[in-house]
Amino acid sequence: MRDVTDVLFEYLEAKRHLWNTHFRRHVRSLSDCSPLEEYEQIDRLLFSAIVLDPLDLGETNVEHLGIEPLSFLRVKPREGFTTLSIAFSVPPGGSNRLWGVPESVQVSQNAHFGFIQFFDWDVYGFAAYPYFRVRVDRHSELPARSGQDGLIETLAAAVVLVERESD
Q1: In this structure, are strands 157-161 and 2-3 parallel, antiparallel, or unpaired?
Q2: Distance CA 134, CA 156 (A)
Q3: Which is nearest to 71 in space by CA: 137, 133, 16?
Q4: Taking the alpha carbons of 157, 145, 12, 159 in that order, is the dihedral positive or negative?
Q5: Of 108, 66, 67, which is closest to residue 84 (Cα–Cα)?
Q6: How far is CA 82 from the centre of its chain?
Q7: How far is CA 128 from each of CA 32, 61, 122, rounded to the nearest angstrom?
């Protein structure tokens, strides 16, 4: 597995700048879908251009970006971290979710979570995206949390590219 955290942060910076500078002020109400839908289309194009193309994954479909984990990206603890603060979804599933109080979870360097998207509490305000939204998979060190989404601080984790099915 190859560390691609810098590639993802380059995408994040473009996404954040685009939203904060050019789109945020045009969203007058949540019922006015046009600016939001256009931003989401552009976001997928940004992801393709800044992440997929440089990683030679240009033909990958990202229509589910932000909804389902991307099979080729995993979030893992940064080197030296043995605990992660993770807020888990309550209850698991659904498009609208509640988040529990962050829990301090013991992890090894082999702990991996499926990358879904960068997350910010206020998606319509000034965005910073301080969290990775991830999904605990069935092979994780947290089998009781399998299938649940979680929020992990971006400063505590790295993103790796899964190059082979066995990774």
Answers
A1: antiparallel
A2: 13
A3: 137
A4: positive
A5: 108
A6: 21
A7: 23, 26, 9
Q: What does the pLDDT look like over 119-133, one tens digit per residue?
A: 999 878 899 999 999
Which burial class, exposed, middle or buried, applies to 66 when counting CB atoms under 10 A from its CB (0-12, 13-18, 19+)?
middle
State pLDDT tens for residues 39-79.
Answer: 889 999 999 999 999 999 988 888 889 999 999 999 999 99
State the residue for tokens 């400063």. 155
Close Cβ partners of 24 (under 8 Å, ≥ 6 residues apart): 124, 125, 126, 127
Query: Nearest-CA neighbor of 15 among 158, 156, 154?
Result: 154
What amino acid is encoded at 61 in this protein? N
Closest CA to 53 of 63, 41, 62, 42: 62
